[in-house]
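Before a colleague's protein record goes any further, I have to sign it off. Alongside the sequence sits a line of tokens, each denoting a local backbone shape. I want your independent view on whether this chain really folds as the tokens say. Where you disagree with what is written, explain briefly why. This is what I was given:
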Amino acid sequence: MEPKRYRPSQGLRDLLRHRDQHCGFPGCRRPADRSEIDHIEAYGQGGHTTRQNTHLLCKQHQMFKHALGWKVFACPDGSKTWISPHGLRSITIPESVSNVENFDHLNDHCPQRPEEATPPVVRLTPETRRVLSLDQDEDLPDTGTG
């Protein structure tokens, strides 16, 4: 069952600061302590306060998203696809993902990735595994949600 709370728990806040490490807007390097937690799918439109539906954005890039029409879609592999108001697409990968194999976004099938495509293999840093309480060889479950 999905949490029905707007404000993230302390654990989720810690996870996002470690996972993202800086503003998630393409090219922005404002650090996590100068960024805020943002719902990818708006809470008021049914979005949940979960690690899959939240990320860090600085105030300037929250304005880009909410007031200027930028769209963001979370992909099951941890990446985000950003679409500008003019249709330009950009893909971001969380800073804590240290080694990505088979990261095939050349044709940008995200968020509607074809079923026959091989899902990417994402390698997490030891610190990310510790925060998520994952064993050293355990992978994140692919929930298929974005």
